[in-house]
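2024-03-11 09:14:02 INFO worker-7 job=invfold-0412 stage=load source=structure_tokens
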């Protein structure tokens, strides 16, 4: 029964991921690197209109230095990051999603353009998970191109909730 539930969950996640990929054609998102490879960064740095009146055309870059896809980590998870081409100031922060961007994000404050932030313990964190990091403004508007996906993290530690 456990394998059947996992298989259904895997199928649902794959369908959602395919739908998200189809709906974000033209967005720059690149899965993180495998252990031993270079850190995960978005795949393109083009600029252009967002189609929203008054919206900025800046193109931010989010780099997750650690952890990397496939690693085993312990919650709370230290996230080493670097942000390029956007000022980190009042309200710019990181959203972390567990397995899907359909979920409610976990908000992670950023104090500088590079450093270490902490993904706190959370009831959904535990086991093998994909983590999706999206840089957002204070109104939760995503910054174009500033998304990184870490695949198959094995998360250990205390689950709070």
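2024-03-11 09:14:09 INFO worker-7 stage=emit residues=161
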């Amino acid at each position: 029964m456990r394998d059947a539930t996992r298989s259904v969950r895997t199928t649902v996640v794959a369908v959602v991921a395919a739908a998200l990929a189809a709906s974000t054609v033209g967005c720059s998102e690149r899965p993180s690197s495998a252990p031993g490879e270079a850190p995960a960064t978005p795949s393109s740095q083009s600029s252009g209109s967002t189609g929203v009146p008054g919206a900025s055309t800046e193109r931010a870059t989010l780099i997750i230095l650690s952890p990397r896809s496939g690693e085993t980590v312990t919650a709370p998870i230290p996230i080493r990051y670097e942000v390029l081409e956007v000022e980190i100031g009042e309200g710019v922060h990181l959203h972390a999603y567990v397995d899907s961007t359909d979920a409610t994000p976990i908000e992670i404050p950023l104090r500088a353009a590079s450093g270490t932030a902490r993904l706190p313990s959370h009831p959904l964190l535990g086991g093998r998970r994909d983590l999706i990091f999206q840089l957002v403004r204070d109104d939760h508007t995503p910054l174009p191109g500033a998304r990184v996906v870490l695949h198959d993290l094995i998360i250990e530690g205390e689950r709070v909730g």
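2024-03-11 09:14:09 INFO worker-7 stage=report msg="The CA atoms of residues 97 and 105 lie 5 Å apart."
2024-03-11 09:14:10 INFO worker-7 job finished
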